[in-house]
Amino acid sequence: KAQITESRAALPSCVGKP
């Protein structure tokens, strides 16, 4: 699921990681 990783990188708020 590489697409999810890229999506999270674009939305740090969603991931919770800076």
UniProtKB/TrEMBL annotation:
Keywords per UniProt: Receptor
Top-rank taxon, per record: Eukaryota
Protein name: Insulin-like growth factor type II receptor
Annotated source species: Homo sapiens
Organism ancestry: Eukaryota, Metazoa, Chordata, Craniata, Vertebrata
